């Protein structure tokens, strides 16, 4: 079954997040070096990408362009509901990209999936199974140890409406047959947030 994260991560390549695709080879070649390195050094292997966190505060550990707090954070379900509203304004989230969205929204939840190569995106999920995909602005990577932890993220949230035809094309690109892809008859909406700051809660 086609996974929604596949389509939206491909969209994030427009923003320059394609670096996570290119890190597999250098990581493999440096595997012996990183295996012996302390965890703190491995977290900082994205030199210049801000992987090193800000100091610990009373609320938690901070990553990203801005230090944030947990005040007023919504659940993933609340953010998804806000993005489903019909009266949302259009906002720019990438070069030549506009979608219905909300600026400066804050969400709290448990990470259920994340980028295995560089930690440049992660997923929060609602009780109904809807996904909110959070990417880190300017490739401010997160340690993979964040998996399963509770975080707060703040930034630009938007919805991407994907047609059935686009989903069929992506399904075939992922290896499904034309007959299998033809079973996709309805479009779907992707819910995303580009985070200017992420806080790992204590």
From TrEMBL:
Cleaved signal peptide residues: 1-24
Entry-linked InterPro entries: DUF4920 (IPR032577)
The UniProt record lists the keyword Signal: yes
Entry keywords, A to Z: Signal
Superkingdom to which the source organism belongs: Bacteria
Basic and acidic residues composition-biased segments: 40-49
UniProt biased composition (Low complexity): 25-39
Region called Disordered, residue ranges: 25-56
A family per Pfam: DUF4920
Descriptive protein name: DUF4920 domain-containing protein
Originating organism: Saprospira grandis DSM 2844
Upper classification of the organism: Bacteria, Pseudomonadati, Bacteroidota, Saprospiria, Saprospirales
């Amino acid at each position: 079954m086609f996974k929604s994260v596949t389509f939206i991560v491909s969209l994030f390549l427009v923003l320059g997040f394609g670096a996570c695709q290119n890190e597999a080879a250098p990581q493999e070649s440096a595997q012996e070096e990183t295996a012996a390195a302390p965890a703190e050094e491995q977290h900082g292997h994205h030199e210049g990408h801000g992987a090193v966190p800000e100091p610990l505060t009373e609320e938690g550990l901070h990553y990203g362009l801005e230090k944030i707090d947990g005040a007023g954070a919504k659940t993933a379900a609340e953010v998804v509901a806000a993005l489903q509203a019909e009266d949302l304004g259009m906002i720019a989230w990438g070069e030549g990209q506009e979608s219905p969205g909300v600026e400066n929204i804050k969400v709290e939840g448990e990470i259920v999936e994340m980028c295995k190569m560089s930690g440049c995106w992660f997923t929060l999920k609602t009780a109904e199974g809807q996904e909110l995909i959070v990417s880190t602005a300017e490739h401010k990577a997160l340690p993979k140890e964040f998996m399963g932890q509770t975080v707060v993220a703040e930034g630009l949230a938007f919805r991407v409406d994907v047609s059935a035809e686009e989903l069929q094309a992506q399904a075939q690109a992922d290896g499904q047959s034309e007959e299998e892809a033809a079973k996709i008859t309805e479009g779907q909406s992707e819910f995303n947030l580009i985070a200017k700051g992420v806080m790992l809660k204590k």
